[in-house]
Amino acid sequence: MKKLAAALLAALLLAVPARAASAAPTVDAGAAVLMEKETGTVLCEQNAHDKLEPASVTKVMTLLLVMEAIDSGSLSTDDVVTVSAYAASMGGSQVYLKEGEQMSVHDLLKAVTVASGNDASVALAEHLAGSEEAFVERMNQRAAELGMADTCFVNCTGLPAAGHLTSAHDIALMSRELILNHPAIREYTTIWMDTLRNGQFQLANTNKLIRFYEGATGLKTGSTDSAGYCLSATAERDGMELIAVILKSPTKDTRTAAATSLLNYGFSNYTLMDVYPSQALPPVDVLLGESDTVQPVLSTSSRILVEKSMVNQVTTQVSLCENVEAPVEAGQKLGEMAVYQGEELVQTIPIVADQAVERLNFPGIFARLLRTLFMAQS
């Protein structure tokens, strides 16, 4: 194996020593989690797996299923939903839908994300699955697929119900899935004020961070007497998006302050950076191939999450095979790049072939032999 190792960002090694990362904040909440979206890294946590009521933060899963349907083509934002008597009967936060009223999926999404409409959530659930009960089965199935082991959904709204529980960790997981793979949700979660019914019904976002926090992108608030004040807050700065989950905070203001504290901590102490091999990867010899060599490339993005204080200490080490026998498939592993933060191995990225190389057939071998003999004689 060829070994290629060198420090990344060597010029930065001459910079003044960076300050150490500050301590993670403790917030006034029953549970909390701060997660980075791209890598899914938990930056800090507080009672992260305690099973608590999520109130309307439940609707993150409702929105996820709706957005998955939209992005798969089985649902359109232009589709018209007819409101059932059951959907219209929902209490709590609502946009006062009437039985038989018709509203587009687009407007119902606004009602859910901006006004936290329970009636709008049920209307969407029934439209997608036929009933709220069937939709909740899909919610729990999706939760299991995402590894949300602390979660049991009983409804799609977050209205108080026995056994309707989740955790700050699980909310971060479903929030990440929503914003990572369905970025169009931002069209709705970043609305501060809007209207429904041709301007006759006013909407004001229950997430005050949308107006007052730099880079805020969403996501969902919730509160009931038993759940307290809850929030999954997302924000992006300098290409890094964070998810701050707050459960069971005593007041609206403490909820907002707690999320702000977590987000500020994350943006102050962490960054995403691109890492590359310290020098160009040399071609790998191919034995008995139609091409003599194949070019190795990194298989995935090499962006990593690092503490800002450790940026100067990120290094890479490449291990690459000397040769490979044909046939070679595109994407076939040829080695790997290890990424270190100080002494700690933080990521290993496979190095793969950038294209396929077919094996020489007998006429090809004979032709190559003739060329070799001719070149030797000349």
Supply the key terms.
378 residues, 2 domains, Beta-lactamase, five-stranded antiparallel β-sheet, 29% strand, alpha+beta, Peptidoglycan synthesis regulatory factor (PBP3), Domain 2, elongated, 10 helices, single chain
Summarize this structure briefly.
This protein is an alpha+beta fold and 378 residues long. Helices cover 29% and strands 29% of the residues. It has two domains: 2-13 and 275-377, Peptidoglycan synthesis regulatory factor (PBP3), Domain 2, CATH 2.60.410.10; 29-249, DD-peptidase/beta-lactamase superfamily (Beta-lactamase), CATH 3.40.710.
Mean pLDDT: 91
The proportion of residues forming helix, as a percent range, comes to 25-40%
H-E order? EEEHEHEHHHHHEEHEEEHEEEEEEEEEH
> Low-confidence segments, ≥5 residues, pLDDT <50?
1-20
Strand order of the largest sheet: 1-16-18-19-14
The first-level CATH class of the largest domain is given as: Alpha Beta
Mind explaining what this structure looks like?
With 378 residues, the protein is α+β, with helices and mostly antiparallel strands. It has 2 domains: 2-13 and 275-377, Peptidoglycan synthesis regulatory factor (PBP3), Domain 2, CATH 2.60.410; 29-249, 3-Layer(aba) Sandwich (Beta-lactamase), CATH 3.40.710. The chain is built from 10 helices and 19 strands. A 5-stranded antiparallel sheet has the order 1-16-18-19-14, with no helix packed on it. Strands 3-2-10-9-8 form a 5-stranded antiparallel sheet, with helices on both faces. It has a 3-stranded mixed sheet with strand order 13-12-17, with no helix packed on it. Strand 9 (228-237) and strand 10 form a beta hairpin.
